[in-house]
Design goal:
By secondary structure, this protein is mostly helical. The chain is built from five helices and no strands.
Length: 86
């Protein structure tokens, strides 16, 4: 374990991009995600294009539909501390 380097963050992902990535990985259209969440498709488009803030309730609804924790959507660039340092 002495001969390794920590991974470096090479790109930043916005909240909207994280929603789009999760949606596309599950092969859902914006319309299909709207049907699953009750969030209008234009609002989903606005979130994905960072024109509309996601908000707590929308984050919960999207996370349920996308089968992930809301933090995955809201904090896409969050790094965990080393377990040894915690």
């Amino acid at each position: 374990m002495e001969n390794y380097r920590k991974a470096k963050k090479t790109i930043d992902v916005s909240v909207g991009e994280s929603v789009r990535i999760m949606r596309e990985l599950q092969e859902l259209s914006q319309s299909a995600l709207a049907a699953l969440t009750g969030i209008p498709q234009p609002t989903i488009s606005g979130i994905e294009n960072d024109r509309i803030n996601i908000g707590v309730e929308r984050a919960k609804a999207l996370a349920r539909a996308l089968k992930c924790h809301p933090a995955v959507l809201v904090f896409p660039g969050w790094k965990l501390k080393d377990s040894a340092a915690a």
